[in-house]
Structure to design on (344 residues):
């Protein structure tokens, strides 16, 4: 196959194989994962459960490849809640128990995330004792980080431990976003202290929209995890429950930091509005003072420019200087009154 044909084949499958599978891993007890194909995964799942105790497989599919969902429906017996999550729009995070398995929908930022509020997508997950299925439409950062851990040889004792690690990676991605956002907010705040607000208002608005969107999508996740901890499936070990609890606590802390950062951005925006109003008021005051100081000159010019009889000092040699002196006195008095009120 030529290079051009290879590139076209990769584009047609969206980085997955002909079955929509992006990657597959087989996890044995206390051993690093090994790569498996879709057919090898089906062969493993066909074995009796007692012959593969402590072993599970993770299959990750791309829903951009239409063959992925068709292959899942034809070869895997998954609950209806999983297929419903594939069709649902981006909503809130949830983790629910169905029979002897778990179905989760978690949100994450895209792999090439650049602080765009729309760059948020979801991953649908099925977690059973022997099988983990994840499906996404676009590459996501936390899932890719989890894959990097698997490829580095990290050992996972169960499918629930894999999910817990994914949730921890998700919390880590959120913490990285908050760290970068905090750095930007610090820079804008420094500019605000230097009374420069021109360049930071738009950036703060974009950061606040992003944080509010992430907060709205991710805030239900800790509550869903804690509900699951109260009544976990029977096959979930106490160690897995502890990992779940740790992931929930880390995510709760990250969401608390996100809420605090949103409030800080809000306060900075209010301070910016106050500073802009102060500058506007100062400009209006200068314009008002100039108008008031020019009022005597305009009135006298209007009166003396009517060209009618009886204009005072019109025949005197010092009339101009007398009128100028009177205008100077009036302008000084008005300036004193205006600036005295300003100081008060």
């Amino acid at each position: 196959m030529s290079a051009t044909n290879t590139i076209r084949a990769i584009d047609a499958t969206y980085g997955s194989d002909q079955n929509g599978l992006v990657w597959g891993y087989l996890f044995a007890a206390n051993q690093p994962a090994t790569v498996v194909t879709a057919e090898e995964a089906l062969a493993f799942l066909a074995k009796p459960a007692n012959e593969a105790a402590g072993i599970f497989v993770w299959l990750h599919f791309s829903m951009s490849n239409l063959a992925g969902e068709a292959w899942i429906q034809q070869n895997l017996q998954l609950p209806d809640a999983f297929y419903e999550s594939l069709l649902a729009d981006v909503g809130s995070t949830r983790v629910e128990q169905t029979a002897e398995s778990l179905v989760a929908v978690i949100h994450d930022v895209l792999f090439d995330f650049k602080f765009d509020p729309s760059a948020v997508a979801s991953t649908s997950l099925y977690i059973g004792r022997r099988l983990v299925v994840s499906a996404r439409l676009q590459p996501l950062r936390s899932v890719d980080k989890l894959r990097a851990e698997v490829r580095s040889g990290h050992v996972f004792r169960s499918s629930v431990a894999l999910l817990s690690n994914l949730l921890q990676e998700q919390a880590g991605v959120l913490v990285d976003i908050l760290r970068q956002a905090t750095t930007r907010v610090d820079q804008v705040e420094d500019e605000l202290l230097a009374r420069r607000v021109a360049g930071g208002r738009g950036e703060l608005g974009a950061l606040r929209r992003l944080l509010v969107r992430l907060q709205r999508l991710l805030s239900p996740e800790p509550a869903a995890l804690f509900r699951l901890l109260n009544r976990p499936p029977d096959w979930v070990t106490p160690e897995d429950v502890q990992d779940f609890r740790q992931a929930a606590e880390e995510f709760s802390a990250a969401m608390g930091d996100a809420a605090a950062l949103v409030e800080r951005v809000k306060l900075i925006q209010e301070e910016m509005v106050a500073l802009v109003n102060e500058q506007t008021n100062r400009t209006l005051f200068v314009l008002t003072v100039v108008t008031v100081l020019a009022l005597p000159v305009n009135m006298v010019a209007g009166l003396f420019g009517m060209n009618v009889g009886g204009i005072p000092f019109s025949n005197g040699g010092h009339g101009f200087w007398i009128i100028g002196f009177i205008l100077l006195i009036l302008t000084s008095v008005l300036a004193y009154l205006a600036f005295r009120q300003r100081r008060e």
User: Anything to note?
Assistant: The longest helix spans residues 238-304. The chain has ten helices and seven strands.
